[in-house]
Predict the structure.
Amino acid sequence: MPGTPDEPDFSGLGGGEDQQADDIVREVVGWYNAAIVAERRAPVPDEERIGKLKAGREDALADQARLPGVDPEEEARIAAAYAARLRELNES
């Protein structure tokens, strides 16, 4: 259920489901960007972790780019998958 502690509530943002999916994916991309910057600034950056973070970001950007062409069912699946990913990333 949107708005519960387990599911971010993007319903007030407007723009419908397509905008909701885009917003969630954008948040995930932002998380990856911040994590990459933080890792690069570490006294001894972990290049392997940076590579994994970049790969995660690229996957999210690819999904974001294909959002305009997907049907509503796929869009809902992407939104749910990225809401779960964002929750996992924030817990890590």
The first helix runs from residue 16 to 41. The chain has a mean pLDDT of 88. DSSP finds three helices and no strands in the chain. Residues 6 and 87 are 7 Å apart (CA to CA).
